[in-house]
Design brief:
13 helices, TIM Barrel, 8-stranded parallel beta sheet, alpha/beta
Amino acid sequence: MDFAEYLEKTARNNDSIVCFGIDPVIERIPLKLKGTGRRITKFYSEMLSAIADDIAAVKPNYAYFAQYGFDGLKALEKIIAVAKKEKLPVILDAKRGDIGKSSEAYSKEVFGFWKADAVTVSPYMGTDSVLPFITQSKGVYVLVRTSNPGSRDLQQLPMKSGKELFMETAGKVLEWGTGAVVGATNISELGRIARFFAAANRKTPLLIPGVGSQGGNASEVAEMLKAANRSIAMHRINSSSGISYAYEKYGGNYVAAAEKAVKELNSEIGL
């Protein structure tokens, strides 16, 4: 089973295409435990176990864990183990991409050490920086059109072909046979990219951040995906703080609040 098939199977089993983005901010974790790593691990492990049947992937952001040093990285290892136990695809949001030999080393770290099922990769350094991550049965998501405001600085630049850089990158994604990161904050461009991949009749999984606090609308995203291709089971709509810190919105227990947030998101998507 390749990665796209794994995504589709998980979506069918859990009736969801929600990806839970795990971006720990210690100041927002309402636990009194000693030790940063213990607080992160308990908070996310409890939450993940409770919502596992209603989501279809997890996306831990490497930088958010690494900022807390070895305590944070040990917490990452434990949380990945919980996700694996729950049979959820693990997408390590590391945004790697370097010269060939360095990318080979990063690939070994991501898939060998962390045991991730997929990784996010920056395409800026070209083909030789991406190819080491394209491993059999593992997933790669290339940054195509990201959700941050500054993405327009480079990604919207016009090329000699008349296309913007992000569409040229989408063409490379087809060439490489990877997935793509496309933000929910640029809904019309998300539609263009989704239609482009659908027209090529290739399975190209999309990882779509930017829903919730960044301004993206899950219902609009789902409608756009369905318009491009009837089957959207291989795609993932990510929510991070909207799930992790749902207790700040709803009050009460953080696990119960996360469960409520996930159910609402699944309802908006309407798989």
